[in-house]
Design brief:
Blueprint (H helix, E strand, L loop, with lengths): L1 E6 L2 H8 L2 H9 L3 E6 L12 E2 L9 E2 L1 H12 L8 E11 L2 H7 L4 E6 L7 H6 L3 E4 L9 H12 L32 E2 L2 E2 L2 H4 L3 H19 L11 H20 L1
Parallel strand pairs: 1-2, 1-6, 5-6, 5-7
Antiparallel strand pairs: 3-4, 8-9
């Protein structure tokens, strides 16, 4: 898999992509991630990538030419498929697990990091295939959102994680939040690990984890239960949890 990140601050991208999971995936040759400096594709002597907006207004807008030239130069090389060209923007679709999973199946992604007041609309209209947001808030640029996107995608590529089952048990993979996790010591300042996790009874542990996952989702993200694939046993557990919550509310 190849990912090119178009940015005016390539050092930000390189600093993160050289470490931890992303760095190891690059070292293994599983993923090729490149920070592409948009200033290298600017056409004027000052290497400008932004200009004042037509019609007036505050701030600066990212220019068409460097972005188009960069994408055209990158896609001139032979690749098995055309890339998905992604613009990181607060106006895009909100990133979720399903989206990351779908992008992880692609061979080539180009990610454009916006800056300033945004990008020239012609970039959206004639170059971009996907617009993605990481939340309803504003940052100074698209570099941090691009890195969030890249890590959420790369960790789902086969061979990237040391334990392939890790990604399959995380929050959202089953439509629910992940169950609580514990490690040594079993008793820390009187805060004890649930006995069932120390029992060695794998069937009971799995039942505890499923119940805990359902309970967390019910309390923190009940909206997820509307689309999660639930079994009859799951629904029975949820009914018990809701009854317990109602009893607790009456007694408080």
């Amino acid at each position: 898999m190849r990912i090119d990140i178009l940015t005016t601050f390539p050092q930000i991208i390189e600093a993160v992509c050289s470490e931890s999971i992303l760095g190891k995936a690059r070292e293994k040759g599983i993923i090729e991630i490149r920070a592409v400096n948009l200033r290298d594709y600017a056409t004027d002597k000052h290497k400008s990538t932004d200009d004042e907006p037509y019609g007036g207004g505050p701030g600066m807008v990212m220019k068409c030419e460097p972005v188009f030239r960069a994408v055209e130069a990158l896609t001139a090389t032979s690749m098995p498929t055309r890339p998905r060209v992604i613009l990181m923007t607060p106006q895009g679709k909100l990133l979720n697990y399903k989206m990351a999973e779908e992008l992880a199946s692609q061979h080539y992604l180009i990610v454009i990091c916006g800056r300033y007041e945004g990008v020239d609309e012609r970039i959206r209209e004639h170059l971009v295939t996907d617009e993605i947001s990481i939340g309803d808030y504003i940052l100074s640029g698209g570099e941090l959102p691009a890195l969030v996107l890249v890590e959420s995608v790369v960790r789902l590529v086969p061979g990237v994680l040391g334990d392939e089952t890790s990604a399959k048990t995380e929050s959202f993979t089953s439509g629910l939040l992940e169950y609580a996790q514990y490690t040594r010591p079993a008793d820390f300042r009187g805060y004890k690990v649930p006995d069932v996790l120390l029992s060695g009874n794998h069937a009971e542990i799995e039942r505890w984890r499923r119940r805990n996952s359902l309970e967390r989702t019910l309390k923190r993200r009940p909206d997820l239960l509307e689309t999660a694939p639930l079994t009859d046993e799951d629904r029975a557990i949820l009914s018990e949890l809701q009854a317990e919550a109602a009893d607790s509310a009456r007694n408080s």
